Amino acid sequence: DTGVSQDPRHKITKRGQNVTFRCDPISEHNRLYWYRQTLGQGPEFLTYFQNEAQLEKSRLLSDRFSAERPKGSFSTLEIQRTEQGDSAMYLCASSRQVDNSPLHFGNGTRLTVT
Amino acid sequence: LAKTTQPISMDSYEGQEVNITCSHNNIATNDYITWYQQFPSQGPRFIIQGYKTKVTNEVASLFIPADRKSSTLSLPRVSLSDTAVYYCLVGDNGNDMRFGAGTRLTVKP
Asked: Which DSSP symbol is given to A103?
């Protein structure tokens, strides 16, 4: 168990640029989640995959955000035309395909939009 | 989605037992209760999970009364390294669980 890996750990970008983050889940985990966390708040659910299928997206998720998990392994989260309000920690988690299986989180990608 | 309510913050001293209570009045029959710990600049880490009565592991205990409308995370003999934010979540599936603001525990020497 090598844990959930996220890349990069930090990203600074200018407003209007596109950014992409990568998440590598624990290898035997079928489920993958993306969250966003701002200072002083708990993680906010963004989207969820079971294998390669994206099963749920938060209604709060702007259509500038898109996530993929093409082969049911790693996932990418892209933000187009970034805004300063997108500055946050983006967390990825994975879990087994078993009800009540705990989430295993990576250490996140911290995005700063200037 | 079941909503949870926790104290915003708590202070304790090294060596004391800390109990953090979470209210979840609209918990559903299939929902489990899961607690996570988060340190600054890290992702949340699973601590303990339970459905009813009491669960204990090497890190903590979780007490759940019969009506399941609340739960209490108990951390025995805390140390400075237990200073963190603790989140209580309820749900039967990862995509059902939503984080609140959590409880910020500060352990003092």
From this structure: P
Contact B95 A48 (CB under 8 A): yes
Tens of pLDDT, residue by residue over A77-114, are 999 999 999 999 999 999 998 878 899 999 999 999 99
Query: In this complex, do A105 and B45 lie within 8 Å of one another by their Cβ atoms?
Result: yes
**Residues B94, A4: C-beta atoms closer than 8 Å:** no
**Residues A11-69 pLDDT 10s:** 999 999 999 999 999 999 999 999 999 999 999 999 999 999 999 888 878 899 999 99
Q: Which of A5, A89, A83, A77 is nearest to A41 (CA)?
A: A89
Strands (DSSP E) found in chain A: 5-7, 10-13, 19-24, 31-37, 44-50, 53-57, 65-68, 75-79, 88-95, 104-105, 109-113
> A70 — contact with chain B (CB < 8 Å)?
no
Tell whether A1 is within 8 A of chain B (Cβ). Answer: no
Q: Note whether B73 and B47 are within 8 A (CB).
A: yes
A97 touches chain B (CB under 8 A): no
Q: Count CB neighbours of A82 within 10 A.
A: 21
- Tell me, yes or no, if A104 comes closer than 8 A to chain B by beta carbon: yes
Q: Residue B17 corresponds to which tokens in the numbers above?
A: 């037992």
State whether B94 and A33 contact (CB < 8 Å).
yes
In sequence order, the 6+-apart residues with CB closer than 8 A to the CB of A19 are A11, A13, A78, A79, A82, A111
CA nearest to A29, candidates A2, A47, A68, A9: A2
